[in-house]
C-alpha cells in the first residue's frame, strides 16, 4: 500500500484557534492524517495543492453531546417539555426502533454532522434495545468517517413495544457492554473511542450509579456521559456532590446540562478535571435553567457545547454558538439593567464562543492534544468555509462571520484525519437519494407505530419522576 499524498492548503484565511492568535494567513501541510506545518509559505515536492483562496480554514467543530439516533425524528419535539420528551421519545418512539433504524439514524446523523463541519461528536447512545441495536449504532458512526466517542447507554428502554415494562438499568445491558468492548469494533482505528452513558443518574440509586462508573473504568471508557442538574427539574438530587463525597469524580466524567450545579459542585468538577457539555437550545426550551457555559468556564471547568436532540434542533454548531453567545449577553445585560445601568462593552465575545465550540469541546473530552486547533502534531480535522456566498460576502471579520453568518451550506471542504469527507460543498462517497429514501421510510414506520400508543398510562407512570411540574 502506498502512502497517501500529502496535502498542501494554500491561500486560506486561517483561524487556528490557538490561544492568543487572531486571524492569520499562510499554508497548511497535511501528511499521514496529521498537520505537519502551519503558516508562511510552505513548499513540498509531492503534495497535492488545494487552493483555498478566499476561504476560511479552521478546526472542525466538537459537539460534546448528541443523541444521534433521533435523526429520523427531526421536528417532532418543537414544543415539548422534558416531561413530553421523556414520555414520547424515551418511552414510546424508542421502543419502535429496530437495529436497521438505529444504523440509519446514527449513520445519517453522523453524515449530517460532517456536512455541518462537526468533525468530533459524542454520541450519548440510549437506543440500545438489544445487542444488535448496539452494533448497529456503533457501525453507523464508524461507517460515516468522523471522529467521536460512542457512549454505550445503560438506560433500559421499553422492549416488546410495551412502554410500561421498561426497567431503568437491566442486567443484560451491563453484560452487553462487556461484549461490545471485548469485540473487535474498537481495534484498528482510533477515530471512534469507547465510552459509556450510565442510566439516568438522577433516577438511579447512588450505589447502582457507582457500580456503573466502576464498570466504565474497568472497561477503559474514554468518556462517561451523564445528564445532571437540569435546572427547574432538579429536585435537590445533587448527583455531582454525592459523587464528590464518594470520591468518584474523575477526568473521564462528562457532565451534561448542569444549570443547577451548586458552586461547590462546580468547584469539584473543575478540581477533578471533569468536563461539562452545555446544550444551550435544550436548556432554554425545556426549562433547564440558564445555559451554564460561560459561568462554568469562569469556575475553571473544561466546557464545551452540545447539540443534544436532533429530533428538535439542527445538527450544526453555528446555531448553538449564536444561542449561547446571545443568551449569555442577555443575562449579563439584564443584570446591569436591573441595577439601572446599560453595558458600555458587550461580553462575551464572538471569539470566546467559537473557542468553546472547537478547542473548548476538545478540552472537555481531554482530546486537546489531538484536535481542536490547527497546530503541528494535531490530527488534520479541518473545515474550509466559503466567504463568497450570498450570506457570507463580504467577510470583513472571519470570526464574526463564522459565528453570526455562516451555515452548513457555506462549508466547502471537511477533512478528518486528513481524509476529505466533503468537497465542493457535497459529502463524498455517499448515495444520498438512497439513504434519504430509507430514512424517510424508517421515520414513517416509527411515527405510525408510536401514534397508535395510548400515552395516558405512560404519563401516569412518569409523573412521579417529575414531581414539581407546574
Ligand atoms: Zn442528552
UniProtKB/TrEMBL annotation:
Gene Ontology molecular function terms on file: hydrolase activity, acting on carbon-nitrogen (but not peptide) bonds
Amidohydrolase-related domain span: 56-420
Record flagged with keyword Hydrolase: yes
InterPro entries reported in the protein's UniProt record: Amidohydro-rel, Metal-dep_hydrolase_composite, Metal_Hydrolase, MTA/SAH_deaminase
Keyword Ribonucleoprotein tagged: no
Keywords attached to this entry: Hydrolase
Family statement: Belongs to the metallo-dependent hydrolases superfamily. ATZ/TRZ family.
PANTHER family from the UniProt entry: AMIDOHYDROLASE-RELATED DOMAIN-CONTAINING PROTEIN, AMINOHYDROLASE SSNA-RELATED
NCBIfam families from the UniProt entry: PRK08204.1
Protein's name according to its UniProt entry: 5-methylthioadenosine/S-adenosylhomocysteine deaminase
Gene: mtaD
Amino acid at each position: 500500500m502506498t502512502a497517501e499524498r500529502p496535502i498542501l492548503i494554500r491561500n486560506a484565511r486561517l483561524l487556528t484557534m490557538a490561544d492568543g492568535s487572531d486571524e492569520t494567513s499562510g499554508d497548511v501541510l497535511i501528511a499521514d492524517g496529521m498537520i505537519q506545518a502551519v503558516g508562511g509559505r510552505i513548499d513540498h515536492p509531492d503534495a497535492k495543492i488545494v487552493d483555498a483562496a478566499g476561504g476560511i480554514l479552521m478546526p472542525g467543530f466538537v459537539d460534546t453531546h448528541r443523541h444521534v439516533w433521533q435523526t429520523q425524528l427531526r421536528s417532532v419535539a418543537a414544543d415539548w417539555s422534558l416531561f413530553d420528551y421523556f414520555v414520547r421519545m424515551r418511552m414510546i418512539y424508542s421502543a419502535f426502533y429496530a437495529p436497521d433504524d438505529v444504523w440509519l439514524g446514527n449513520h445519517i446523523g453522523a453524515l449530517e454532522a460532517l456536512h455541518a463541519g462537526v468533525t468530533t461528536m459524542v454520541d450519548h447512545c440510549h437506543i440500545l434495545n438489544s445487542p444488535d441495536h448496539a452494533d448497529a449504532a456503533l457501525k453507523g458512526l464508524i461507517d460515516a468517517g468522523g471522529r467521536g466517542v460512542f457512549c454505550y447507554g445503560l438506560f433500559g428502554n421499553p422492549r416488546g413495544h410495551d412502554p410500561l415494562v421498561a426497567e431503568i438499568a437491566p442486567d443484560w445491558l451491563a453484560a452487553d457492554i462487556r461484549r461490545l468492548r471485548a469485540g473487535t469494533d474498537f481495534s484498528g482505528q482510533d477515530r471512534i473511542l469507547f465510552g459509556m452513558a450510565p442510566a439516568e443518574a438522577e433516577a438511579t440509586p447512588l450505589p447502582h450509579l457507582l457500580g456503573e462508573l466502576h464498570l466504565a473504568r474497568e472497561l477503559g471508557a474514554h468518556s462517561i456521559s451523564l445528564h445532571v442538574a437540569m435546572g427547574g427539574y432538579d429536585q435537590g438530587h445533587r448527583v455531582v456532590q454525592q459523587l464528590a463525597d464518594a470520591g468518584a469524580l474523575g477526568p473521564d466524567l462528562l457532565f451534561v446540562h448542569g444549570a443547577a450545579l451548586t458552586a461547590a459542585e462546580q468547584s469539584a468538577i473543575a478540581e477533578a478535571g471533569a468536563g461539562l457539555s452545555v446544550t444551550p437550545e435544550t436548556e432554554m426550551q425545556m426549562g433547564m435553567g440558564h445555559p451554564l457555559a460561560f459561568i462554568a468556564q469562569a469556575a475553571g471547568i473544561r466546557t464545551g457545547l452540545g447539540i443534544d436532540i436532533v429530533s428538535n434542533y439542527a445538527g450544526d454548531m453555528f446555531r448553538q454558538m449564536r444561542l449561547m453567545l446571545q443568551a449569555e449577553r442577555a443575562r449579563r445585560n439584564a443584570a446591569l439593567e436591573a441595577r439601572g445601568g446599560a453595558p458600555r462593552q458587550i461580553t462575551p465575545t464572538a471569539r470566546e464562543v467559537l473557542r468553546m465550540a472547537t478547542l473548548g469541546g476538545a478540552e472537555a473530552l481531554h482530546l486537546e492534544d489531538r484536535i481542536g486547533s490547527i497546530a503541528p502534531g494535531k490530527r488534520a480535522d479541518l473545515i474550509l468555509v466559503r466567504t463568497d456566498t450570498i450570506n457570507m460576502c463580504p467577510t470583513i471579520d472571519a470570526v464574526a462571520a463564522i459565528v453570526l453568518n455562516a451555515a452548513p451550506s457555506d462549508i466547502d471542504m471537511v477533512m478528518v484525519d486528513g481524509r476529505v469527507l466533503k468537497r465542493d460543498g457535497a459529502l463524498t462517497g455517499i448515495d444520498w437519494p438512497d439513504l434519504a429514501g430509507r430514512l424517510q421510510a424508517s421515520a414513517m414506520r416509527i411515527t405510525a407505530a408510536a401514534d397508535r400508543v395510548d400515552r395516558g398510562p405512560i404519563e401516569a407512570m412518569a409523573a412521579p419522576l417529575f414531581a414539581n411540574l407546574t
